[in-house]
Amino acid sequence: MSVLGIMLQVGSSATSGNTILLAILYNLFWIVMMVLFFFQDYVMIWRYSYTVGNFLSGLGKLINDNVNLIINHMEQLLKSNGFSQGIDKAGVEKVVRDLMEYVVIEPVNAEPTGLMRTLKLLVTTYNERLEDAVRSVLSNVNRPLLQNVVDAVDGLRELNFIYKVIMHYYRLSNKYKNPYLMMQVYMLLPILREYVNALNGAITTFLKGQPVGDAAGPLTAYRFLNLCGNAEELTHNVKDTYIGICNFENRRVYVVKARGPGGTVGNLDDAIIYLMERIGVRPRLVITVDAALKLEGERTGSIAEGVGVAMGGIGVERFNIERTASKYGVPLYAILIKMSMPEALSAMPKEVESAVNEAVERVKGIIRERTREGDEVILVGVGNTCGVAQ
């Protein structure tokens, strides 16, 4: 046989071998695709379950660490207040974990008449229950320090609620082999991680008694009050709330904020009602200053002005202020200091602290432009006043 014939025969054999190999690979590919098609739900559940499970493990450890942090902080507070004996850590842990499971049931809203009064009652009852439980352990500790612990426990309760909800859907998805439930939690994990980290930072910040980003409103009110002339405190019976009176360019300004330096948001709506209903203040306008969550792309510490009541929460206090102001035809002005969720709950960043000074100037500008000498004005610093005096 010639050399050319031998080469052709070898080439033909190689081509045949490659064809067989390609056929085998092609068939294997479709077999794998069919297996993945029939078992895709299990593959998806395994993938998402692994990630969500790791998140839950980390969150559970974070909650336990914060429980121990709060207990140790309580022990240090008692020792610094002359309680030399050790505390019953098991008993204190039971109190803390019971508060973590405390439930506030929403009122019936099918009949809206009196709904806001009911919500106000529930919020007040919850806050009093939380404070009474912490006071049962820290009976000899002064109230500002006790309020900081209450805020830390409230943050821990929120962390525990997140853990329980995610665990619910995690187990439900595994129970019914439903990947779409797990997928929803998986998609929300980046947002949940940011919120969890913010709450974790808030617990530490509250225990240290440092101003948080959400204290921008009270700090604005405090700094404005210090710039006024003849500033003095008004005697009243509104719980956890400071009302000051000062003179700004021949205008009488009533400054309202939560009473510091303990962590509390006060009862600002009750203070407004007290001023306008009880002692007959007729303000030319009401100015509220509060922290606001910024949108992605907005700068931390940027300020926006507007109309309305700058106040978050479930809307009870905002409703009461709006109703009282509208009753007497008082315009409502708002100043918002922008920040992210972690910045609002953690130690106040420098950008927010600097923005407070600008907010004070904005308040001055609104008063100068919208009022005349002899008018009355109410300025409300909205937010948690942890670390802010008065």
Low-confidence segments = none
Round the mean pLDDT to the nearest integer and report it: 89
Coarse structural class: alpha/beta
- Would you identify the CATH architecture of the largest domain? 3-Layer(aba) Sandwich
Hey, roughly how much beta strand do the residues contain?
A: 5-15%
How many strands in all? 7
Summary?
By secondary structure, the protein is an alpha/beta fold. It has helices spanning 3-38, 40-80, 89-100, 115-135, 143-176, 179-208, 216-227, 268-278, 316-327, 341-345, 350-370, and strands spanning 229-233, 241-248, 251-258, 285-293, 303-307, 332-339, 376-381. It folds into two domains: 41-208, no CATH class; 213-381, 3-Layer(aba) Sandwich (Rossmann fold).
Task: Explain how this protein is built.
- This protein is an alpha/beta fold.
- It has 2 domains: 41-208, no CATH class; 213-381, Peptidyl-tRNA hydrolase (Rossmann fold, 3-Layer(aba) Sandwich).
- It has 11 helices and 7 strands.
- Strands 1-2-3-7-4-6-5 form a 7-stranded mixed sheet, sandwiched between helices.
- A hairpin with a 2-residue loop joins strand 2 and strand 3.
- Helix 2 packs parallel to helix 6 (179-208).
- The longest helix has 41 residues, at 40-80.
- The protein is globular, with a radius of gyration of 30 Å.
- The protein starts with a helix and ends in a 9-residue tail after the last strand.
